[in-house]
Automatic annotation (TrEMBL):
<keyword id="KW-0067">ATP-binding</keyword>
<protein>
    <submittedName>
        <fullName>ABC transporter</fullName>
    </submittedName>
</protein>
<dbReference type="Pfam" id="PF00005">
    <property type="entry name" value="ABC_tran"/>
</dbReference>
<keyword id="KW-0813">Transport</keyword>
<dbReference type="InterPro" id="IPR051782">
    <property type="entry name" value="ABC_Transporter_VariousFunc"/>
</dbReference>
<dbReference type="InterPro" id="IPR003439">
    <property type="entry name" value="ABC_transporter-like_ATP-bd"/>
</dbReference>
<dbReference type="GO" id="GO:0016887">
    <property type="term" value="F:ATP hydrolysis activity"/>
</dbReference>
<dbReference type="InterPro" id="IPR027417">
    <property type="entry name" value="P-loop_NTPase"/>
</dbReference>
<keyword id="KW-0547">Nucleotide-binding</keyword>
<feature type="domain" description="ABC transporter">
    <location>
        <begin position="29"/>
        <end position="155"/>
    </location>
</feature>
<dbReference type="GO" id="GO:0005524">
    <property type="term" value="F:ATP binding"/>
</dbReference>
Amino acid sequence: MLSLTHFAKSYHNRLVIQVPDWQLPAGIHWVKGTNGSGKTTLFRSIAGMLPFDGQIVLNGQWDCRRHPVPYRLRVNYSEAEPALPGFLTAWELIQWVGTAKQASGMQIDELIDAFGIRDFMKTPVGTYSSGMLKKTSLVIGFLGDPLLILLDEPLVTLDQQATETVSRLIRRYHEQGVSFLLSSHQDFNLTSLPVQSVWRVQEQTLTQEPLTSGPV
């Protein structure tokens, strides 16, 4: 599903993370790591938001750099700490991303109601709490018809109802053939998710960890 070859990302000549060869099959995968370990840098690179060395290919046919438009159409990303333009409303952002992702109006309405953001989505993002920002980012993360969704710290600042919504949507989209990369520096409390593999970002690289029995 996802292939990283000779991948490396540095800032000002300082290596942040290096992955010589990572062949990730379709499924749900959990990426662990402490704050500052390079998880978000890895996710942003896979999402096509950062320049990097090496190659990232989706499904053996869409190269992140050589095919940027079809690649980004199939890879969605919800940030850990969303930095959204404060002068825009959630509605404007969702409509803009929804158009780019070719999302239907029905899907947009369903996600807005699922995360309960309809009451505030017409007010400027700059007035939002951290929880409101997170819900808006998660709506954007599920838009369109992706093959891969990256959810960076998806449970931070969420209430119990929104947490259950995330879990339900992951299960439903996965049943429809969507793969997930879930990032967290804490133990996941999303229940009943068929997590296929667990990885840890540390010491500037990525290593696989044993998969515990039962839901992660």
